[in-house]
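Please decode residue identities from the backbone states below.
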């Protein structure tokens, strides 16, 4: 497990990334992971704020049973996001990624369509919000589900006094991404235009940072969304359409910013979007070279962080997506010294020729725990 801590006078944010240390049954791996998580959260006095679990579909019942047994006193009714991935080299449980908060202000449960889907915490005259696992499996096909998912997000934020303009970052978990990513982009572009995130001049767009990746949400939905937002008159979100070595992805049809910066409970968080080996013209480069793509991708992420004043030591969370076990093995062998708190999973990327994708978040002033 790797942890990071960001503290202010009144608040602390704890970021935990935990994965099994050895192969084993799902129940054994989940026991190890959640025991470690429980001990760390107790020592920091922090409460869960956003939580993701990556595991095989068959492992999820054992994982949830272990979580309930070990972390029952931390469970406030907001479910973790359950994400289905192929088996990792270490076994059926790939890992858990957590964001927790210690604050004098109580954490409030956020509901969407009457169901607990997130939490919020007030910081002076602004409110930091994390909403997770928005799905609409009953809306129809994948396109209809995606539109309903975005509409649900907007309605939930409106009830909190915000809007889609309050969103700093989204995660789009897209089953069968290669089969409908172009359609997803059309749905997202239309929706963002309808709510004013995209104007006639794309250089004035207020698009959140984002990841769209071929990871299946549990229980059969075509897609799911997580987001973080800052609402209230004191809310601060900055969007960086271009960052580091890469131009705006809107030039090739994807409505997101390369990075964003938002005020979070204990300071600021910089979110770098899902990033791959894409050159300034929007082309995949180098083609067919896994080690080369991984190296370029990591440098692209680091370049974005450098632009926004963040150091490697301040990276608090990351997820590495490899499109095959062979690519994942190269990442683990050749880049083992990356040093970031990073979950590694196997997932389809948005193009056939992209072999690897990486996302990360950093908090200036964060320290290892």
């Amino acid at each position: 497990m790797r942890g990071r801590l960001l503290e202010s006078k009144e608040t602390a944010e704890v970021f935990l990334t935990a994965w099994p240390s050895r192969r084993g049954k799902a129940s054994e791996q989940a026991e190890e992971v959640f025991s470690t998580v429980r001990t760390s959260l107790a020592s920091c006095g922090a409460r869960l704020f956003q939580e993701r679990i990556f595991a095989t579909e068959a492992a999820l019942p054992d994982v949830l049973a272990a979580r309930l047994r070990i972390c029952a006193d931390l469970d406030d009714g907001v479910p973790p996001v359950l994400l289905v991935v192929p088996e990792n080299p270490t076994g059926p449980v790939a890992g858990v990624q957590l964001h927790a908060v210690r604050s004098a202000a109580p954490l409030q449960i956020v509901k969407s369509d009457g169901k607990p889907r997130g939490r919020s915490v007030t910081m002076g005259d602004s409110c930091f919000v994390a909403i997770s696992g928005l799905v609409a499996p009953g809306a129809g096909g994948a396109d209809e589900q995606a539109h309903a998912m975005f509409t649900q997000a907007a309605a939930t934020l409106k009830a909190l006094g915000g809007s889609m303009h309050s969103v700093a970052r989204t995660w789009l978990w897209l089953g069968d991404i290669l089969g409908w990513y172009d359609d997803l982009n059309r749905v997202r572009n239309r929706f963002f235009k309808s709510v004013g995130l995209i104007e006639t001049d794309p250089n004035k767009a207020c698009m959140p940072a984002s990841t769209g990746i071929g990871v299946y949400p549990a229980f059969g939905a075509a897609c799911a969304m997580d987001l973080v937002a800052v609402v209230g008159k004191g809310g601060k979100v900055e969007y960086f359409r271009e960052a580091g070595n890469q131009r705006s992805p809107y030039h090739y049809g994807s409505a997101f910013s390369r990075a964003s910066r938002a005020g979070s409970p204990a300071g600021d968080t910089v979110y770098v979007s899902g990033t791959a080996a894409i050159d300034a013209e929007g082309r995949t480069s180098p083609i067919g070279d896994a080690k080369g793509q991984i190296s370029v991708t990591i440098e692209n992420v680091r370049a974005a962080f450098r632009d926004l004043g963040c150091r490697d030591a301040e990276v608090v969370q990351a997820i590495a997506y490899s499109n095959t076990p062979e690519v994942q093995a190269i990442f683990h062998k050749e880049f083992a010294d990356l040093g970031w708190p990073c979950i590694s999973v196997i997932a389809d990327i948005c193009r056939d020729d992209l072999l690897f994708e990486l996302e990360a978040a950093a908090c200036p002033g964060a320290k290892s725990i």
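Observation: The radius of gyration is 19 Å.
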